[in-house]
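Weekly structure sync, notes
Attendees: PL (lead), two postdocs, one rotation student
Agenda item 3: pending single-chain targets
PL asked that the sequence for the first pending target be pasted directly into the notes so everyone works from the same version. It is reproduced below exactly as submitted, 127 residues in total.
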Amino acid sequence: MNPFPKLLEESLINTKHVECAAILVAKTGDLTAASNFTVCPEQSRMFIDSFKQVNVTRERGLNFRNKLYTCVRADKRSIYTKCEGHGLILVRTALYVIVATYSQSMYPSICVEAVEKLAEYLREKGK
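Predicted structure, written out during the meeting:
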């Protein structure tokens, strides 16, 4: 049984500061689990590739849901972007990329903290 859907719900969605979330396989972009999130293959590839060219991501931001999200932070482990009160958070572990969004009524800092904690948990498990 895949433990990731429950993990997304309990550690991210239940904070009430994560709108939707997904876990992608870092090498292939395959969807492992999602909560309120549909990801097409092109978006998955963009999320994965954004870590390969962090400087470009930092400069250009990310195009997501027909909006340009400007980059707030980008390094080899984490990418934070925002657009008109909404945000897109990407965090990479050895095997996965966690993707999460927040809306205007949510606190970005709590969303970031929740995603980073989940990533750290996966890193501790060697994933």
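Discussion points:
- The mean pLDDT is 95.
- The first strand starts at residue 20 and ends at 25.
Action: rotation student to compare against the earlier draft before next sync.
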